[in-house]
Amino acid sequence: MNQKDTRRETLEFNKLQKRLRRNVGNAIIDYNMIEENDVVMACISGGKDSFAMLDILLNLQKVAPIQFKVVAVNLDQKQPGFPEHILPQYFESLDIPYYIVDKDTYSVVKEKVPEGKTTCGLCSRLRRGTLYSFAEKIGATKIALGHHLDDIVETLFLNMFHGARMKAMPPKLRSDDGRNVVIRPLTYCREKDLIDYAEYKEFPIIPCNLCGSQENLQRQAIKSMLADWDKKSPGRVDSIFKSLQNVSPSQLADTTLFDFVNLPLSREGQREEYAFTEAVVSSTNIDESMFIDITNI
């Protein structure tokens, strides 16, 4: 690579890095993800997303107007062939506090899930429960996960198509037991940017051997669908995500979110409706006796 190409590559990376840091910073501010004196437990799986999240959080820690700690935590699920030395070496090279949590969830998943069935559901529940408990043990006030914008949109469609629910991944969430707060700092980041960032930074990525070979995952089908949409109509995935930030309950159909049954008409609305009715009647041959005078109700 010549000097000109090197300069161009460096310039493109600087743009990418600024964009990712800005997106993470904006997400943290918009959802008040990190507060003064927080202890943020960054969950590092060994994938590109969690590596990027940790890298960006450590950078923001240096320049943020508040003080907070970042602790890296990896859950060693005892998958066969998992390179146990990689993450400790990486964390030590960063000179940051870290923990490796040993929990054989792999055996549980292989025992409980029939051959050929998707393992991700049970695996994620076991992993989440272990991490939640460990966060309390080390006094972490926030649990940071590496889910990005594409993950959130994919989850929305997974729940719609396969669960009949309009539900995604919130940027910030209090756990069901109320003891933990989960944050997703990469909420505004696109996966394609994270891929480029990981390649440039040369993170020591560890593939997931448990589910990486499952080619027929429903999420993969959704991912392919969204990629095709975004290719044909650039910006569509971003627009779908923005719709999650601009919800109108009265324009949907959930009676638990909006009282459709007892929907009163305001007096002003009644007057407007009556005026409209009079206008319609006077301009047509409609029998006025067929209408109800709502001003007398």
TrEMBL record:
It catalyses: cytidine(32) in tRNA + S-sulfanyl-L-cysteinyl-[cysteine desulfurase] + AH2 + ATP = 2-thiocytidine(32) in tRNA + L-cysteinyl-[cysteine desulfurase] + A + AMP + diphosphate + H(+). Residues 41-203 form the tRNA(Ile)-lysidine/2-thiocytidine synthase N-terminal domain. InterPro entries: Rossmann-like_a/b/a_fold, TilS/TtcA_N, tRNA_Cyd_32_2_STrfase, tRNA_thiolation_TtcA_Ctu1. Pathway: tRNA modification. Keywords: 4Fe-4S, ATP-binding, Cytoplasm, Iron, Iron-sulfur, Magnesium, Metal-binding, Nucleotide-binding, RNA-binding, Transferase, tRNA processing, tRNA-binding. A motif (PP-loop motif) lies at residues 45-50. One of its GO terms (biological process) is tRNA thio-modification. Belongs to the TtcA family. Homodimer. This is tRNA-cytidine(32) 2-sulfurtransferase. It comes from Xenorhabdus hominickii. The lineage of its organism: Bacteria, Pseudomonadati, Pseudomonadota, Gammaproteobacteria, Enterobacterales. The gene is ttcA.
